Amino acid sequence: MISLDDVRSAATVIAPHVVRTPLLPYGPGWLKPESLQPIGAFKLRGALNALARLENRERGVVAYSSGNHAQAVAFAARLHGVPAAIVMPDNTPAVKIEATKALGAEVFIVGITERVERAEALVAERGAALIPPFDHPDVIAGQGTIGLEILEDLPDVGTVVVPMSGGGLISGVATAIKTLRQDVRVIGAEPALAADIADSLRAGELVHWDPDERARTVADALRDEPSELTWEHISKLVDDVITVTEDEILTAVADLARRARLVAEPSGAVAVAAQAKFGGGVAVVSGGNIDPELLSDVLTNS
Amino acid sequence: MISLDDVRSAATVIAPHVVRTPLLPYGPGWLKPESLQPIGAFKLRGALNALARLENRERGVVAYSSGNHAQAVAFAARLHGVPAAIVMPDNTPAVKIEATKALGAEVFIVGITERVERAEALVAERGAALIPPFDHPDVIAGQGTIGLEILEDLPDVGTVVVPMSGGGLISGVATAIKTLRQDVRVIGAEPALAADIADSLRAGELVHWDPDERARTVADALRDEPSELTWEHISKLVDDVITVTEDEILTAVADLARRARLVAEPSGAVAVAAQAKFGGGVAVVSGGNIDPELLSDVLTNS
């Protein structure tokens, strides 16, 4: 498991390149708007930390991702002047594919079940380094810097709500918060249509959902499942899980635009949908890369 | 004219109640997203400073405003536990009227030409204090805190672009910036359909446009004209003006949602539209209270 020192060290490495997001008052609670990062998502923190610590990066980096991690690795690679090859599943929103290309990465579109295989082939062909989306200590430590910032800005915080999928974000945030303040509750948020971690915590062991089941939710960045590494953090550090419906997710997207003036993607609004049931605390708005047509539709219908 | 000390003193007074907005990278420049303030606009800064310095506020406060100042005064009054009566013109977007009521203010809707008279009548009837939207040193000093924050976060800033209407925001920001750093250019941005300050600077004296002319722009918060006090600051401190078309304003609203994940109202995007012509510097995103239907429309058509 990663340590508080890993997170503190990551904070020093990434500080010059990330936005120090403020906490925004929101009803009885607060928002941590990671949607304001240059690539529109928290993923930049983990990718920057992992890439900065790579010893052998001159042959480039490879990543597979449904979107935000792709942009994060592309951004970090451009910053360090190394080539990036990104494998994306063919159901990725167009806005995320275009944004990744605009950051200078070479993009490979494949079927969702082929993406790991294709990424590994690229690593073998090029001698490049794979930066996984969540299953890596440096990635987790980078995401954990969000937890440090929340405690700095709101020392008397009672609850932090974090979206869960592969579990990299909540593993890092929970490490930072629970090491410094055991009394703060760390709550995971999941779409009910991809609630494998809620099931796992009830069962006391990692329960697998079929990828086709997890793919049903509109929260396209929350269709992954934990690795052994992130499951270890989650099972030891997370206090509880709140699951939310598809309607609740889209209502949260609309509410964020209307009341917080934030553009959030569905995945980025899942913790806010959970916070609405809970009535307070800090919710991490994890990303803002929504297709404009969907946002437009949500604003008139939710 | 106000002084740097007035702005610094305002910063101390308002710090506990405003969001310390970060600078967000945006193309070759930066954004200062005041749309993230609790009421969705920079106006909170000036209203909080003015209300905190009122000696005789127990009988309440009165304001007239096309929207964001209304919410700012309502928020500040609630914070201090005093009643607020707000006079709003009948062409104010519904979202701003509802938000003002939700903050506990008593709202009076009148024709746009009657608003000052009605506000003065309320002051006389109730013995309440009028908080003007821009024509007051404490209001200007509060808005100027944005300039201090920009210099703190980006010491090597070259240009700051600020929307202009009544001129309170740019008067405060220019006072802070030009006193500390004469080499930083302070540029005003105006809709071409309400470009009375551009005309005034060319003429070397305050030129008046008919209110009906100024009312044509979609930037509904930029339909005012300077007072003698703000004109004195503008004429002495502002380096240049960039005017933007209605199309450029709406394109900036769409770009901010897509690329910066910010919800901006048309008035709030005017400095960003000007920045796009200019290619860098810091643009103040002054507000985010847009009717959701308009945002939805802009996202699919601009």
What does this 3D model show about the protein?
Chains A, B: InterPro entries: Ser/Thr_Dehydratase, TrpB-like_PALP, TrpB-like_PALP_sf. Chains A, B: It comes from Lentzea indica. Chains A, B: This is Threonine/serine dehydratase. Chains A, B: Its cofactor is pyridoxal 5'-phosphate. Chains A, B: Pfam families: PALP (PF00291). Chain A has 2 domains: 4-41 and 136-301, Rossmann fold; 55-130, Rossmann fold (3-Layer(aba) Sandwich), CATH 3.40.50. Chain A is 48% helix and 15% strand. Chain A has 302 residues and is α/β, with parallel strands linked by helices. In chain A, strands 1-2-10-7-8-9 form a 6-stranded mixed sheet, with helices on both faces. A 4-stranded parallel sheet of chain A has the order 5-4-3-6, with helices on both faces. Chain A has helices spanning 4-14, 43-53, 68-80, 94-102, 115-126, 137-153, 168-180, 196-203, 211-214, 228-237, 246-259, 266-278, 292-301, and strands at 24-26, 29-33, 61-64, 84-89, 106-110, 129-130, 159-163, 185-191, 240-244, 282-285. Chains A and B meet through α11 and α13 of A and α11 and α13 of B.
